[in-house]
Predict the structure of Tetratricopeptide repeat protein.
Amino acid sequence: MKKSQLILIVIGISAIVGLYALPKVVVDNEAGTTSVEDPNAPENTPEGVTEMHENELSSEKRSLADALKLKLDQDSDNTVKISAAKELAGIYQTEGMFDSAAFYWEKAVEVNPQDMQLVEEAGKAYYEAFSFALDKNKVEDLAEKTRSYLNQVLEKNPSRLDLKTKVAMTYVSSANPMQGITMMREILEEDPQNEDGLFNMGVLSMQSGQYERAAERFEELIKYHPDNLQGQFYLAVSYFESNEKNKAKAQFEAVKKMTQDPMILESVQTYLDKL
């Protein structure tokens, strides 16, 4: 499981509260009505955030990062520059500083903008940063960055539904959230078992308070993808919020059998104690 997915699970109740940091989008299959709040908060520039994150690195990693930045800035060999940028991105990604990681993937793309693998990695890195951003203006900026890179890949390979789902989710946080929901539905029409599509539609239903609909999405998700621990967890939460106490208890117990992670188990137990 990806580190980012695990983080969303282990924070338990806070994860569900965090969903409400997104714009309030109503996912109505028939009417397709939506509403969205306007962003007002200020944002930091990528350079400023990266400088701030430098101070959060250990002295050893900061020294390594400084040496790599010197190569990136001064080396005349593009291969060396790209390698330095990728290694810098890896340092920040490992530390959970996703916006800084994306910033250095972007630096790699600037060296060779024709390399679609670099473009894709930059887009995915910005999406990961977008997924954890709370500041509304920052969310908007990271979403735009994600689209600018991933759409380049999709233009050459429109069958990449994994990337299309990411682009769709960035629109959900925009001034036109229905565009993202429409894209997600198109993905599920093309691939009804699409893991990301089913999961994201479930999350969007939760975010809009449609927990019964969310449960349906997550039930479908785990039918095709039973190892999706995040989906299993959110199915239990959806049952809990729908007042389906017996189903919620059984589902939380099922989640407990899927992992030994103490943080996840603690989060599950928090819900079980309320049942």
Remarks:
- Confidence is low (pLDDT under 50) at residues 1-7, 10-25, 28-43.
- The two ends are 28 Å apart (CA to CA).
- DSSP finds 15 helices and no strands in the chain.
- The longest helix spans residues 136-156.
